[in-house]
Amino acid sequence: MRIGFGEDIHRTTDGKPLLLGGISIDEGPQLIGHSDADVLLHAITDAILGAASLGDIGTHFPPDDETWLNANSLYFLKEAIVLTKKEGLELVNIDATIKARNPKLAPYIGKMRNQIAKVLGIEINRISIKAKSNEGLGAEGEGTAISASAVVLLQEQSSRI
Q: Which of 21, 34, 36, 137 sits CB 3.0–4.6 Å from 141 for a disulfide?
């Protein structure tokens, strides 16, 4: 078994839509980044790569490479799983937390879980996503940034839980 941790944070700007967890949310704010700035997918991707000892998202998809300008982060997530499988590892589960003042994310968490499960080819009950407001503290609480953290568990493909 291998555990990986990932985190990401992006500044917000006026505008819509918010891309988070592989879905589009019509309520803002929009996130600023080289790719689509999906902090949740970036955190999960980093956690998967870290658990497999394959570096981080910037190693595989450098932010100074124009190839990844406005890239859909679902691609990063898919590629992380492809690389992990090549290492003989499979994903057991994901536990993630998003910190954002706005919008209220509870109505969207089910859609995020469905999208991520579909892309990764795993059961939805292996994905947990929680949302926190940060109680007005820090950039997330002030609404000037949204962040996410994730932990994943990988296991060798030959063994089953």
A: 137
CA–CA gap between residue 17 and residue 66 (Å, rounded): 22
| C-beta separation of 68 from 79 below 8 A | no
Alpha carbons 26 and 23: distance in angstroms, whole number: 10
Whether residue 161 lies inside any domain: the answer is no
As beta bridge partners, residue 145 has 11
Beta carbons of 97 and 149 less than 8 angstroms apart:
yes
What is the domain range of residue 147? 2-156
Q: Cα–Cα–Cα angle for 129, 93, 134, nearest 5°?
A: 25
Q: For 53, phi and psi rounded to 5 degrees?
A: 60, 45
In CATH, what number is assigned to the domain containing residue 99? 3.30.1330.50
Structure tokens at 77: 């997530």
Residue 144 lies in a domain: yes
- Please tell me the total count of domains within the chain: 1
pTM over 0.85: yes
pLDDT in tens, 115-144: 999 999 999 999 999 999 999 999 999 999
Asked whether residue 23 is domain-assigned, the answer is: yes
Q: Is 7 helix (H, G, I), strand (E, B) or coil?
A: strand
